[in-house]
Amino acid sequence: MSKSSAPSSPGICYLVGAGPGDPGLLTIKGKECIEAADVLVYDYLCNPEFLRYARPGTERIYVGKKAKDHTLTQDQINELIVKLTREGKVVTRLKGGDPVLFGRGAEEAAELAEAGVLFEIVPGITSAIAGPAYAGIPVTHRDHASQLTIFTGHEDPTKEETSLDYAKLAKADGTKVFLMGVERMEEITGKFIENGADPETPMALVRWATHGRQQTLIATLGTMAAKVKEAGFKAPAVAVVGDVVKERKNINWFENRPLFGKRVVVTRTRQQIGVLSKKLRTLGADVIELPTIRIEEPHNLMAFGELVQDCHTYEWLIFTSPNAVDAFFKMFYKIYNDARSIGGVRIAVVGPGTAEKVKEHHLAVDLMPEKNFVAEGLVAALKDFQNMENVNVLWVRGEETREVIANELTGLGAIVDEAIAYRTVPEKDDNLEAIARLVNEGADMITFTSASTVECFLDLNIPLPAGIQVASIGPITSEAARKRGLTVDVEAKANTIPGLVEAVLEALK
Ligand code: SAH
C-alpha cells in the first residue's frame, strides 16, 4: 500500500468495494486502502462506520446520491478523483458492494486510465450474492440451480430501449438476481410472466441486506409486486427469483438471532465503539453508532510526561479507565524504550475493562475490586490490601474524572499525585447520518457507557424517540442520566461492556 508521506510520491486512486453493509464484510485490502488514504470519497450505500479506519485528518468527501446540499454528477465525481489523484494524493474511492457490479466503477477506472494516473480496483463482496445469503438463500444449490443470472432493474434512463431481453431472461435456467428493481417490480415480474416464466416461482426481496435493519419479503413472481406495494417496501433491495428461495426455511440464520429487529444506539468514542457494537450485532441487533465523545490529549501534556517519567518511584500506579492506560503507555514509550523502566511499581485498576488494557501491555494487575467496579470500590480494595498511610500513589486519570480516588486515599493518609492523561470532549464529526437514522427511524434502546456519554449525548439536543429505553453501564452513569432528567430502564449488573450487553439482551429479547 503506498503511503503519501513523501511529497514527491505519485498519487493513486483505489476503487474499493466496501461490501454490502455488515462492517465485517469489508475486505482486508479494502481496510488497508482506507488506512492509507489521504482522501476518502464515499457513497450512499457505503457504511460510514468504515471512517473509523481512516487516519486522523483524512479528508472525507461524501458524493452519495442522498447528499443534502447537492449531488455530484458522475462526470463531476470522475473529475474529482482524477484531480485529487493528480495532486499526488492517495485517494480511496469507496463504493457499496463490488465496485464493478452496477457500480460505475469501470467508468471511473477508464477516466483514471485516460488521465494517466495510477489506480487499482479492489473487489468487494456484492449485495447480489451476500444479500440473499444473509436471508438464508444461497444463489446456487446442487438441487435447485447451477446457473446464476444477475441483471439490473434500472438501466440508464437515457437509453431509448432496454438492452435486457426478457424473453431470454424469463427462460434462463437457474437463479435470477436483480438489483435496483424495487420501483419497477410490477414491470419486471410482469415481463417475466409474459415471457413464459412460472408465476409460482419463489421469490424474495431483501432490503438493507447484511445490515441490522435487514428486512425480507417472500412471495412468488406472480405476487411480489402487490406485496411490495402492500408492505410499502422501498430500495435498496436485492431481488432473487428461483427455487433456491425454498432453502430459507432451513438456513435462515441471520434473522433468527435474539436481537434481530431491535435497534440499539451506542455512544462511546469512535475508537472504542466497535467492541460494543460488534457484540450487539452478533446477537442480531441493528446498531446505530453515534459516538458522542472523543479522547484528546490533556491540556498540560508536559506535566503528564514528567509524572509518567517518574512512575517507577511510586508504590502504586492506579488506572481508573482504559483510556488512561492507553494514554499512559503511549507517553511511557515516548520516554522509555525498555518496558523494565516501569520498575517494581504495583498496578491497581478500577475494573475488568481497564485490567484488559493493562494486560495488552503485558503487565499484570495487582489489585482490582471484586465486584464494585467504581472508584469507591477501588479505594475499599486498596484499604483492605494494606494500610495506606504514607503510601506513594500515582493516579492516572482523565481531566474530568471524579475526585473520589484522590480525596479518599488522601483521607487514608496516602500521598497521591495525579497524572492527567487525557480529556474527554464532545464528538462533532461524521454523525449526521447516525442522527438522521435515530430521529427518523427511532430505536429500542440507547446505551451509555460513562457519565460523559450521557452529558455529550444530551448536549446534542436530539429529541429522544418515543418508546426508547435507556441502558446504563453502572451506578455513576445512571446517576448522571437521572440528573439530566432521563429515566434509566436498564442498569448492567456487572459494570462492564459484557455486563451491559447482557442487560440489553435480557431487556430486549
Ligand atoms: N455495486 C453494488 C451495487 C450497486 S447498485 C453491489 O455490488 O452490491 C445499487 C443497488 O444495489 C441497490 O439499488 C440495491 O438493489 C443493491 N444493494 C446494494 N447494497 C444493498 C444492500 N445492503 N441491501 C440490498 N440491496 C443492496
TrEMBL record:
**What Enzyme Commission number(s) does the record list for this chain?**
2.1.1.107
The Tetrapyrrole biosynthesis uroporphyrinogen III synthase domain sits at 276-502
Q: In which pathway does it act?
A: Porphyrin-containing compound metabolism; siroheme biosynthesis; precorrin-2 from uroporphyrinogen III: step 1/1
The Tetrapyrrole methylase domain sits at 14-224
Q: Does the keyword Thylakoid apply?
A: no
Q: Does the keyword Membrane apply?
A: no
The protein's UniProt keywords, in alphabetical order, are: Methyltransferase, Porphyrin biosynthesis, S-adenosyl-L-methionine, Transferase
Pfam families, per the entry: HEM4, TP_methylase
| PANTHER family in the record | S-ADENOSYL-L-METHIONINE-DEPENDENT UROPORPHYRINOGEN III METHYLTRANSFERASE, CHLOROPLASTIC (PTHR45790:SF3), SIROHEME SYNTHASE-RELATED (PTHR45790)
For this chain, the family text in UniProt reads:
Belongs to the precorrin methyltransferase family.
Protein name, entry field: uroporphyrinogen-III C-methyltransferase
What gene, per UniProt, encodes this protein?
A: cobA
